[in-house]
Design goal:
45% of the residues lie in helices and 15% in strands. The chain has 255 residues and is of the alpha/beta class. GO terms for molecular function: glucose 1-dehydrogenase [NAD(P)+] activity.
């Protein structure tokens, strides 16, 4: 059973919200009473996701956004505040995975792309969310890192660089903004059963059985398990939690 949260009257923003962990988190925020701003680069899937929430009686706003474009990110936050009057919580989740590669052979374009989305995108989102939260004097931000932000794995250097960067970004900003009433943390998912992971499995980039066996709990994680970690970090239950990189990985990083 998941814990119950009451975010009535609050506003949450979720990037990468059209599927996977982002959609699960948007649903969870909405079910807890928050108005939810869903952002994604995949506009048709985004509209469908927001429509699902609205059909269930929730307040939702879909905003197409490429997080690598800071102007679009600034407009996203502006639209959220224009629609709902404030911004209380954010899950900066938009990210990509890249194929495994020998570190000596990886193309610079691949490095630039994964860091543009996974790191610079988180930086841009957090920057503009903080401008609103700084004015309010309150807020909670959760940035999406990965178990790849805590450990190294052969063949994953560029991806892990982006996710390690998210943790450094989170920790420094958390120290800067804790005295101003804004809590910033990161969540570090393990291998989660999402469309992105399913795509990796279909392409032969990941073996499902091996991935499950590699997590001490013996299975892949579920998107709603990440959502519940995000909601906790945004809730009053985590009011003294600042600057953490929380593993939600079935024990992978505890080995």
């Amino acid at each position: 059973m998941n814990p119950a949260y009451d975010f009535t009257g609050q506003v949450a923003l979720v990037t990468g919200a059209s599927s996977g962990m982002g959609l699960a988190t948007a649903r969870a925020f909405a079910q807890a009473g928050a108005a939810v701003v869903l952002a994604d680069i995949n506009e048709p899937a985004l509209r469908e996701a927001a429509g699902e929430l609205e059909s269930a009686g929730h307040r939702a706003l879909a905003v197409a956004c490429d997080v690598t474009d800071e102007d679009q990110v600034a407009a996203l936050v502006d639209q959220a505040v224009a629609a709902f009057g404030r911004l209380d919580m954010a899950f900066n989740n938009a990210g990509i995975q890249i194929p495994s590669s020998d570190a000596a052979d990886e193309d610079a374009g691949v490095f630039d792309k994964v860091n543009a989305i996974n790191l610079r995108g988180v930086w841009a989102c957090m920057k503009h969310e903080l401008r609103q939260m700084r004015t309010q004097g309150s807020g909670a931000i959760v940035n999406c890192s990965s178990l790849g932000g805590l450990v190294g794995i052969p063949g994953r250097a560029s991806y892990h660089a982006s996710k390690h960067g998210v943790i450094g970004l989170t920790g420094s900003a958390a120290l800067e903004y804790a005295p101003r009433g804004v809590r910033i943390n990161a969540v570090c998912p393990g291998t989660i059963d999402t469309p992105m992971v399913a795509d990796m499995i279909a392409k032969g980039e990941l073996d499902r059985a091996e991935a499950a066996a590699g997590q001490p709990i013996g299975r892949l994680g579920h998107a709603d398990e990440i959502a519940q970690a995000v909601l906790w970090l945004c809730s009053d239950g985590a009011s003294f939690v600042v600057g953490v990189a929380l593993p939600v990985d079935g024990g992978y990083t505890a080995q």
